[in-house]
Write a structure and sequence with these properties.
Number of helices: 4
Structural class: alpha/beta
Helix content: 10-25%
Shape: globular
Number of strands: 7
Mean pLDDT: 81
Strand content: 15-25%
Order of helices and strands: HEEHHEEHEEE
Largest sheet: 4 strands, mixed
Distance between the termini: 88 Å
Low-confidence stretches: 1-25, 39-51
Length: about 210
């Protein structure tokens, strides 16, 4: 004699079998291919709603060149991650042939190298350069310093200026008017800021994105 539990399972199985037979559902020993109506599942090539976008591999950074003796800002795409020296090295590479054809030039002498660049606690950018940079004189030196000051100042939010170093020793360099501030013994030179080169800035800022 079947127990109550066994009898209950047997009864449930019979009910399912009878229901399946009544509905006319066939039973197959092998999988059956079923045609799915179009539009039920999304195309695998379609973007998934809510999916995270790809992480950008480049970001734009300002570098400054010259046109007719005045500063021009270019937004250069740099590969991520971007370290402090990357925009400066990009500047030292000079304008591209296309940019040169459009009148852009650099006063920074060829062979200039960034030895080190740091953001100090007081939000001053320190740039250590090789001796080639310090060999340039006169108006070219002023314009070269301006290019580096503006490019370096764009590296940090609320930058308080730029200091230049040669072989670990801070150097006094001219502002836009050609003035070199006197340095007292034991003190660092005055930092150079963007506003110190207003003489080299056009009345209407010139900006473009380099391709």
């Amino acid at each position: 004699m079947l127990g109550r539990r066994a009898l209950g399972r047997f009864s449930a199985s019979m009910v399912c079998a009878l229901a399946a037979a009544a509905c006319g559902l066939p039973t197959d020993d092998a999988p059956t291919h079923i045609e799915v109506p179009a539009g039920v599942f999304p195309d695998r090539n379609e973007p998934v709603v809510g999916a995270e976008p790809d992480t950008p591999t480049t970001s734009l950074h300002a570098v400054y060149f010259l046109r007719d003796g005045l500063l021009v800002e270019l937004q250069r795409p740099l590969a991520a991650p971007v370290f402090l020296d990357a925009p400066l090295n990009n500047l030292l590479a000079g304008p591209t042939p296309t940019e040169a054809e459009n009148g852009l030039e650099s006063a920074i002498p060829a062979g200039t190298e960034v030895v080190d660049v740091q953001l100090l606690r007081n939000n001053v950018v320190s740039i250590h350069l090789n001796e080639v940079f310090f060999e340039v004189e006169g108006a070219q030196r002023i314009r070269a310093v301006a290019q580096l000051v503006l490019t370096a100042s764009a590296l940090a939010r609320d930058s308080q200026g730029v200091l230049f170093f040669l072989d670990g020793v801070a150097q006094s360099l001219p502002d836009g008017a050609g003035t070199i501030a006197q340095v007292r013994p034991g003190e660092l030179p005055r930092v150079l800021r963007v506003d110190d080169f207003s003489e080299l800035m056009p009345l209407t800022p010139l900006r473009s994105v380099s391709s």
